[in-house]
Amino acid sequence: MFFKQTLDKQLDSWIADVREHSNLPVKLRLWNGSEYQLGSFDRPAVTLTVREASALPFLLVPSLDNLSEAYVQEKIDLDGRLADIIKVGYGLSAAAARRAGGVLNKVAQHFTHTKAEDKASIQYHYDVSNDFYKLWLDPNMVYSCAYFENGNEDLATAQIKKIDHILTKIRLEPGQTLLDIGCGWGALVLRAAQKFGARCVGITLSQNQFDLATARVRAAGLQDRIEIRLQDYRDISGQFDRITSVGMFEHVGKDNLPGYFARMRDLLAEGGVAMNHGITATDPDSGEIPMDGSGFMDRYVFPQGELPHIGMVLTTMQKGGLEAFDVELLRRHYAQTLRHWAENFETNADTIREMVGEKKFRIWRIYLAGCSHAFTSGKMSIYQVVCQKADRNADTFPTSRRYIYASPIGTPS
C-alpha cells in the first residue's frame, strides 16, 4: 500500500510538472482507465497508454532509452502520427533532463570491436531478411543517406544521384579499380561498373547482402568487372585507385578510427582517392546522443555502434595518413531520406509486423522515425569526406570544386 501511495504521488507530481513546463499535446491513459491531459490542447496529437503498473518507472524518468524500452516491451502503447509521437518522446525526455539538472546522458561507451564481434553486430542488423528491407528501401536497396539535389526527387532517383555524386567526387574513370568497403546489396559497385567503367571489389560482413549482391552482379552480367566478398576490411590486401566507404565506419569504433584510416591509406594506389561517408555525433566531445538514446540503439539496432564528431573524423584521418580535400554536410539530406523510409515502413506496417513479429516491428518503427527527428533537429549529423594520402603533391584534384557539378548528376539507367 505504501509503495502504491508513493508511486501515485510521484505520478501526480510528474503530470503537474509536465503540464506546467512542457505543455505537450498528449493524453495519458493508465491501465485502470484513468486519463490525464499533459497539455492545454483540445485535441491531443498522441495517446500514451500505460498498459501495466510496472511501466510507471519508465515513464517517471522518460529518457529516450526508457520510453523506447517500454514501447518495445509492449508496456506502453503510442497512438498518433509517427512524427508527433517522436516529438512527444523528445519533449518528455527534455522535461526529464530538466528535472534531473541535465544529467541524463551516459558516459560514452567504448567497445573492443574484434573481428568476430563486428561480424556478429553487422549480421544482427543487416540479416533481418532481404525481403524486410525491400519493403521500405528504394528498388536498388541503398541503405544510406540519399542526395536530394533539387529537394523534390523521389527516393529512387535521390539514391542514384547520391551514388553518382560520390563517384564524380572521387573522379572515377574507366578502367580504374574501386574498393567499396561495406558494399551493402551492391548498388554502388554496379553503378560504378555500368556507368563509369570501373573494375570493382565490394566487401560486406552480412551473409544476406553478400548473397543478393552476388546474384545482382550475375544477373547484370558483370562477373568479370565486379567481385563481391564476405570479408572484414582488416583482411583486404592489394592496391586500389579509388576507395569508398558508405555508412560503414559507424561500426568501426572511435578508438579504432586511426587504424581504419591507416588501412584505407595502405590500400590506396599512388594518386588514389578515398571517400568516407558516415554518420557523426554533434557533441564536440564525441559523446552520446542528446537525452540519451544510445542504450536502446546498442541493445536493439546497432550493437557496438559508435559515432565520432566530424572533428574526431578529420583528426583520426590525419593520424591514419590521409589528408581531407573535400568535406560536405548532408544532414538535411539524411533527414529527408529517413522520412521516406519511415513513410514506406508505415505504409507496409501490416506486412512488416507479420514478417518480423511485434517486437522487431516496434524496434524498427521507433528507430527510423527517431533518427528522422534526430537529423532534422541537428542531434545527429552526417558528412562525406574525400581524401588522399597525406604528404604528397595533390595533383589528382582540380583547383576548384566545379568538377563535381560540371555535368548533370546521373539519372537511373
Short description:
With 413 residues, the chain is an alpha/beta fold. It contains 15 helices and eleven strands. The chain folds into two domains: 2-99, Nonspecific Lipid-transfer Protein, Chain A, CATH 3.30.1050; 115-405, Vaccinia Virus protein VP39 (Rossmann fold, 3-Layer(aba) Sandwich).
- List low-confidence stretches: 102-108, 408-413
Q: Any guess at the CATH architecture of the largest domain?
A: 3-Layer(aba) Sandwich
In the CATH scheme, the class of the largest domain would be: Alpha Beta
Number of strands: 11
Q: At the fourth CATH level, what is the homologous superfamily of the largest domain? A: Vaccinia Virus protein VP39
How much strand content do the residues show? 15-25%
Strand order of the largest sheet: 7-6-5-8-9-11-10
Order of helices and strands: HEEEHHEHHHHEHEHEEHEHHEHHHE
What does this structure look like?
With 413 residues, this protein is of the alpha/beta class. The chain folds into 2 domains: 2-99, Nonspecific Lipid-transfer Protein, Chain A, CATH 3.30.1050; 115-405, Vaccinia Virus protein VP39 (Rossmann fold, 3-Layer(aba) Sandwich). Helices cover 43% and strands 17% of the residues. The protein is built from 15 helices and 11 strands. It has helices at residues 2-21, 56-60, 64-72, 82-99, 115-126, 130-134, 155-169, 187-194, 207-219, 257-267, 294-301, 310-319, 331-347, 349-356, 358-376; strands spanning 26-29, 35-37, 46-50, 76-80, 177-181, 199-204, 226-230, 240-246, 268-281, 322-329, 380-389. The chain has a 7-stranded mixed beta sheet, with helices on both faces. It has a 4-stranded mixed beta sheet with strand order 2-1-3-4. Helix 10 links the parallel strand 8 (240-246) and strand 9. Helix 4 (82-99) crosses helix 15, helix 7 crosses helix 8 and helix 14 (349-356) packs across helix 15. The longest helix has 20 residues, at 2-21. The termini are far apart. Residues 102-108 and 408-413 have low confidence and may be disordered.
